[in-house]
Write a structure and sequence with these properties.
Layout lengths: L1 H20 L4 H16 L1 H7 L6 H10 L7 H12 L6 H16 L1 E8 L5 H15 L2 E8 L6 E6 L2 E6 H14 L1
Length: 180
């Protein structure tokens, strides 16, 4: 879906820039955009939004009505812009990119940690501390269990992957043996 991310990027950057210029709470904005994206992804909402009977203001009103949070004028204008350009389906990607921009601004990144076995809180803390030194960022860990790794961990921070799993080591050994 590279095309969606390419189309969504200017919207996310513009929204982030506007929120930053207003001195708004970026975390609150990220939550609001994520809520809008979640609402847009609901099958019934998507079906209603795609109705040719609804014009842009009606689609904005519909989406606004299903949100728990009240929209501020800037958020309402943003939804109007998306609706007028038939871009409401970009909300999930815009939310993802907005969160990335917020994290970059805050010097934070998500660290996806996959482990073959359950990690204790102390192990996660120790691992994150080492990774923060390596990447020079404050990391928010998201830990999942992946039995296919056999042992060890695989860590993804942005587009960088550190694979210290037994499976990766076995694959490297196999490649070395086959190459000789």
């Amino acid at each position: 879906m590279a095309e969606l991310s390419t189309i969504a990027r200017p919207y996310a950057e513009a929204l982030f820039g506007a929120a930053l210029a207003d001195g708004a709470d970026l975390a609150a904005w990220a939550d609001l955009v994520a809520e809008m994206a979640q609402a847009e992804q609901h099958p019934e909402v998507q079906s209603a939004l795609s109705s040719p009977r609804l014009d842009a203001p009606a689609r904005v009103a519909l989406l606004s009505s299903v949100l728990k949070s009240k929209l501020n004028p800037a958020a309402s204008n943003f939804l109007s812009l998306l609706a007028e350009n038939d871009r409401l389906e970009l909300l999930p990607e815009i939310a993802r990119q907005f969160a990335l921009l917020k994290n970059r601004h805050d010097g934070v990144a998500d660290a996806r940690i996959e482990s073959a076995f359950e990690l204790t809180a102390a192990q996660v803390t120790e691992l994150v501390a080492g990774l923060e030194k390596k990447f020079g960022l404050k990391l928010k860990p998201v830990v999942s269990i992946e039995p296919a790794l056999i042992g060890g961990v695989r860590v993804s921070v942005g587009d960088q992957v550190l694979d210290a799993s037994v499976r990766a080591q076995l694959e490297r050994m196999r490649d070395t043996l086959v190459a000789n």
